[in-house]
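Practice problem: predict the structure.
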Amino acid sequence: MRRRLPWILGTIALAAVVAYGLSRAPESKGPKQPTKSKISAQELRDKLGGAPPALAALHRQANRFLPGKRAGLRARLRELRGHPVVINVWGSWCGPCRVELPIFQRASLDWGRRVAFLGVDSKDNRESAERLLADIPMTYPSFDDSDAKIFNGYKLFAAPSTVYYDAAGKHTYIHQGQYLDRQQLDADIRRYALS
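Answer:
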């Protein structure tokens, strides 16, 4: 026991120093989570008016949760053939998703006449998800994925993740992780959805 005592005391001292250092560390300078990001009715009309019928149908279901889970998503993808599709997998429990959602909100406004956007709310509590979408409303619907079958079907590592389909309905790419800025998302839309 005497031989181990210095090791034990050293470990306790090290833990105390680390805990003290962490308590004094400055806050992270990472992106802050937005509290609200609204869209005006006028902006919706200006940006999305005149969209093709299949895309206009998505806009009419904006901010709603769609039934059907994995089968519902597959059926909707078949209906959207002829249009590129971007699927954002998110959850209200996911900090990076909260930071990323306003980026998707703005992108779906700008691309919404050419590209179909869908959400997948994965492993989430509906009440929390609805509160988040009240603060950051989306121009497109989300499929409920509380059982994570969509998430697991795409073999995702984490949320957020983004899945791309071209206009022919071919699955082209999965971006695992958060988009940090609009330029990165726009580049991937051009490369994996529109090309």
